[in-house]
Design goal:
three-stranded parallel beta sheet; about 30% helix; alpha/beta; 2 domains
């Protein structure tokens, strides 16, 4: 990937990030991933000295992950832009930091998949709504596709059976006309 991942704190831009941004001669395209309580408006203002700044943010960790998975910059193609059926997701809980490291390759290898956070016991409303938007629909036969795929990294202590079932239900192709999800299967 040609884009570097540079770090800031809530209220400060580290020297190494400043040096990397200076190399771009004032024409960097900078994406802040997170709301102002994670990266302050002051840091955002300081970053504008080095180029164009776009903030990708949600009100909580779940909506933030969805905002990043949904975002696509039309100017340069940066981002996932996952807003329609036929995509892949990697799901895990917010307290699974070490598991997130193991799941990271799913973001770029094989069937590409952005990381979406969920809760151990079920999908938060925002994640459920997002997955409902992505749920594929068929007219005549479920063989029509498209299909979604997901990776749940960890065991049933990480994401329990109830949550796994909800995820499976939201990924499954269903009739566009509604009705029995299993008709035609």
């Amino acid at each position: 990937m040609p884009e570097p991942l540079l770090f800031v704190t809530k209220d400060e831009i580290p020297n190494s990030t400043v040096e990397a941004l200076k190399e771009r001669g004032g024409s960097a395209t900078i994406y802040i991933l997170g709301p102002e309580d994670i990266v302050s408006a002051d840091v955002e203002k300081q970053l504008k000295e080095y180029g164009t700044v776009l903030r990708i943010a949600g009100e909580d960790v779940f909506k933030n992950a969805i905002a990043f998975a949904s975002f696509k910059d039309a100017n340069n193609g940066f981002g996932w832009g996952i807003n329609t059926p036929g995509h892949n997701l990697s799901l895990l809980t917010t307290d699974s930091t070490m598991i997130a490291i193991a799941a990271a390759p799913f973001s770029h290898l094989g069937k590409h998949a952005p990381l979406i956070f969920t809760e151990k016991d079920g999908l938060p409303d925002s994640v459920m709504e997002y997955m409902m938007e992505l749920q594929p629909k068929f007219q005549d036969s479920p063989a029509e596709g498209p299909y979604n795929h997901a990776w749940i990294t960890g065991d049933n202590l990480t994401i329990n059976e109830r949550a796994q079932s909800e995820i499976d239900d939201m990924l499954e192709i269903s009739p566009a006309a509604g009705g029995n999800l299993h008709s035609g299967h």
